[in-house]
Amino acid sequence: MLRALKSVAFAVSAFLLAATAVAQGGEPEPAAPSPITQQYSEADDAAIEARLRGIFAEIEELSGIEVDATDGVVHLSGQAANESVALRARELAQRVEGTVAVRDDIERTLDVDDNLIPVVERFETTVGSVTRAWPLYAVAFGAFLLVALVAHLIASIAPLWRLFAPNPFIARVIAQFVRLAGIIGGLLLALTILDAMALFGAVAGGAGLLGLAIGFAVRDTIENYIASIMLSLRQPFRANDHVVINDMEGIVVRLTSRATILMTMDGNHLRIPNATVFKGIILNYTRNPQRRFSFKLGVDASDDPIDASQAGLDTMSELDFVLADPPPAAMIDNVGDSNIVIEFFAWIDQRETDFRKARSVSINSVKTVLENQGFTLPEPIYRVKLDGVSTLSVSADTVFDTPVRTQPVTPPSTPDAEMDVAPDDHVRKQAAEERADGEGEDLLSDQRPTE
């Protein structure tokens, strides 16, 4: 009876203490762990140790690692061959239920045998797997070769592709595309047989990145290749055309898959990348055989420029190589300090007349006629003013007031219109000889459209 009363008194006292703590805004202090709770925590540590020891015992490379757990903290010790083995042990310990933290005191032995033997064993396992599966690999390789060979044979039928392609260059491009498609198709078939399409995805991703990097590296080459295709489809010139590409002039020899070959007017071999040609400014003198030349002559300021212009026009009209339609023309270009500059224009047929020769003969003929008819082609006049001396007007052949003696020149009575003005075919002959050699491809064709 007394014991029961003591128990009741103890319970009432505990209740009053708790109520007082709550009324004061505090939390009741937790009671000390009972002996049953302490035994349960030790059981958890023992379970963690047993679990990890069992796992490490099943893995040969982890068998030398010792485990000790206290309050959920796992202590790993012992020896491991290298860092990767120790890392694997830590990862396994962290995955065991109840583990709070892992302390790594594992010794890395870095022993040669411990590190080399697993590699040799894995290699032997791989060789054994390949040896057992060689018939399947042989079938996959045979399928790849068969598809690639069939595609190669089809691509080698040149007459077939020329039926669809405008020129041999495009035909070769199509043939190469067929070969590439055959190789990729054969590879896909082989990987399907080996059930390794996942490998193809990884390889394709890596190849895509590699292709992007290579694309940036050979950007100019790819641009030049595409320009060659475009130039071969719609050609801006023909063989033997006289062209100026940007500031480079010459006779067209051939168009290759990489460059346009010109024979310059000096007889030199000029190679221009097709990308430059495709984006460049092209002047084709051959497309329109008629070409206009011009030159300027000055007459004295006291002369009548209209009469001088008419005299020059009459002279050019009498030249056989000057076309009557369109007719020659002349106009006053400007009035200088001591002369009036007249510009003359005339047209020729480049198929029968050389441009430079015609211009040279025309200048000489008009100059001679103007001099014969009394027009003065003045020289520059300079005014020199000296202190205390009157202003002197001197010409270019006078030193102050002392004239320079010169021999009188008697102009010819008639214009020199008999000079040979036939086209100079020397450069064209050189270009034709190089084309006749046949050393290299030529994408130019009279059957293709021009721009």
Q: Topology of this protein?
A:
Elements: H1 2-23, H2 35-58, E1 65-70, E2 73-80, H3 83-95, E3 101-104, E4 107-108, H4 112-132, H5 134-155, H6 158-162, H7 168-193, H8 197-217, H9 219-233, E5 242-245, E6 248-255, E7 259-263, E8 269-273, H10 274-279, E9 282-284, E10 290-300, H11 305-317, E11 329-335, E12 339-349, H12 355-372, E13 381-384, E14 392-395, E15 398-399, E16 402-403, H13 426-437
Parallel strand pairs: 2-3, 2-4
Antiparallel strand pairs: 1-2, 5-6, 5-9, 6-7, 7-8, 10-12, 11-12, 13-14, 15-16
Helix pairs in contact: 5-7, 11-12
Task: Describe this structure in a few short sentences.
This protein has helices spanning 2-23, 35-58, 83-95, 112-132, 134-155, 158-162, 168-193, 197-217, 219-233, 274-279, 305-317, 355-372, 426-437; strands at 65-70, 73-80, 101-104, 107-108, 242-245, 248-255, 259-263, 269-273, 282-284, 290-300, 329-335, 339-349, 381-384, 392-395, 398-399, 402-403. With 451 residues, it is α+β, with helices and mostly antiparallel strands.
